[in-house]
Amino acid sequence: MAQAIDLYFLDECGFAPTLPSTYTWARLGTRVIVPYEAPQGRRVNVIGALAPYGPQPRLAYHSRCGKIDSAAFVEFLWRDVARLPAVPAAPQELPAPYHRERPCVIVLDNYSVHRSAVVKDLLPALQAAGVTIFYLPPYSPELNVIEHLWRHIKHEAMPVRSFAEADALKAAVDGVLDDHVAQIAQSTMSLCRAA
After folding, report:
1. Average model confidence (pLDDT) across the chain
2. Would strands 131-135 and 104-108 be described as parallel, antiparallel, or unpaired?
3. Domain CATH number, residue 155
């Protein structure tokens, strides 16, 4: 276990009030109609990090109505994924002796928020604390494991396909993600009991 690391796959996903319709069941001769809701001001954005491997698989996420900017990204990365003390106001303010027990590698794409000046300024402090950021090659979402989770949620896990209110959409997205968090925790406990 001395060589063990925490490996996270991080990405954002947006949910519009009318989700993609792939297929559904209906009575013979009945056409299913999913009402369309315009997304203005009712889009839910989620930032998530999935650690699917190792003895403690984990899913961390944060959802909000509105954009995920650099500040929200850094807060999530720092607190929820890397589990470091409070985000420093300036990169040099991280206590020098602080270092994670296990190294943490965070895999993510080249989204502009991930490469912002705020993030670049914090990279030395993250590295000093034992957190490494690994950027995937451009246009390679197939290499980010969390993409499968986003697809499953958008296309399969949410039976209601249209939401008139942003709060209802956010509650539905959070409910599905909470179920995934619980499933991951349950599978980890089952593995521990079996060992």
Report:
1. 85
2. parallel
3. 3.30.420.10
Element (H, E) at 149: helix 146-152
- The range of the structural domain enclosing residue 100 comes to 7-19+36-86+96-165
Round to whole Å and give the CA distance between 112 and 69: 10
Q: Supply the DSSP string of 109-121, one letter for each residue.
A: ---GGGGSHHHHH
Task: Calculate mean pLDDT across residues 102-111.
Answer: 95
The pair of structure tokens assigned to 115 is 């490469």
> Kind of pairing, strands 6-15 and 104-108?
parallel
Smallest CA-to-CA distance from 129 within 11, 10, 47, 6 is with: 6
SS3 108: strand
How many independent structural domains does the chain possess?
A: 1
Please report, as a single letter, which amino acid is at residue 67.
K
CB neighbourhood size of 146 (10 A)? 23
The answer to whether residue 132 is domain-embedded is yes
